[in-house]
């Protein structure tokens, strides 16, 4: 029995779950949808747990990591505790940048006084290093003029236990959008396009994550090459490819891809955006369960 792990607040919002469940049924594989924080669950009944829409984890990350550590004594969890611990704090971007991978330039700061102003007018995004779904993420189109608000935002982030990230807004995303590439057991599955969430004020009306404009897209050779560079780093760091990975890329000024985020915890696969992708995901899960 396989457990597809979600959260009570996210289960009805996750469009992947019914598609993935139907694909597992077609393959004759038994599974349950199960909430990670449900204390009544006997986790030992599952041969494998696959983290899916645990989209509230960032609000109680320590509890979530402790839960993974505990259930990992009873069954196999994908992705692993080691991977989730590393990837659930976006400071990993600094590690990838140091390794020579093109990453959106990011300053990690504990106070506004640490920000390095690279130009008189900086259009920036400020967000917590521990976050998901654009939670507590704001764009400041002229940071110098809004520095008191930025300073308060950074203080709030640090008080929450995270590090503040300051990223210059990448205007290439406004036209091209973002390309998300999904890999299963290290093999490319499909891609999708996501519109720029912060081009305008994001819609947070569902109370959990910013509403997203998502559509079909074919990844370019350059995007796939960048994604494989990122995943090669992950494989070398952890000794194996993760069961699932989503590599989110946006264009640099010169048009070449750069990494915005690497999603190894609970990424949406947007299975509806690519024919056959639900079956690909089901087969990857089944293969990992053998």
TrEMBL record:
GO molecular function: ATP binding
InterPro entries according to UniProt: ATP_grasp_subdomain_1, DcsG_Biosynth_Enzyme
Gene3D superfamilies the UniProt entry points to: 3.40.50.20, ATP-grasp fold, A domain, ATP-grasp fold, B domain
UniProt-recorded name of the protein: Unannotated protein
Originating species: freshwater metagenome
């Amino acid at each position: 029995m396989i457990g597809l792990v979600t959260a009570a607040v996210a289960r009805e919002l996750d469009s992947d779950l019914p598609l993935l469940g139907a694909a597992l049924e077609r393959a004759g594989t038994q599974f349950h949808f199960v909430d990670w924080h449900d204390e009544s669950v006997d986790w030992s009944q599952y041969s494998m747990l696959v983290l899916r829409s645990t989209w509230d984890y960032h609000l109680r990350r320590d509890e979530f990591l402790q839960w993974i550590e505990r259930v990992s004594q009873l069954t196999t969890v994908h992705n692993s505790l080691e991977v989730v611990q590393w990837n659930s704090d976006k400071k990993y971007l600094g590690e990838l940048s140091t390794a020579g991978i093109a990453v959106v330039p990011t300053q990690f700061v504990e106070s506004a006084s640490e920000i390095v102003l690279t130009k008189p007018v900086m259009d920036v995004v400020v967000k917590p290093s521990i976050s998901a779904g654009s939670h507590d993420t704001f764009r400041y189109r002229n940071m110098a003029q809004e520095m008191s608000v930025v300073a308060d935002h950074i203080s709030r982030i640090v008080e929450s236990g995270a590090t503040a990230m300051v990223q210059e807004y990448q205007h290439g995303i406004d036209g091209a959008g973002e390309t998300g590439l999904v890999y299963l057991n290290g093999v490319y599955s499909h891609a999708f396009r996501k519109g720029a969430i912060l081009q305008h004020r994001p819609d947070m009306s569902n109370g959990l994550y910013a509403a997203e404009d998502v559509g079909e897209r074919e990844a370019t050779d350059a995007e796939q090459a960048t994604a494989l560079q990122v995943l090669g780093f992950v494989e070398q760091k952890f000794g194996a490819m993760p069961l699932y990975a989503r590599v989110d890329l946006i264009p640099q000024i010169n048009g070449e891809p750069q990494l915005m985020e690497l999603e190894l915890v609970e990424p949406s696969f947007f299975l509806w955006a690519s024919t056959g992708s639900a079956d690909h995901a089901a087969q990857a899960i089944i293969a990992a369960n053998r």
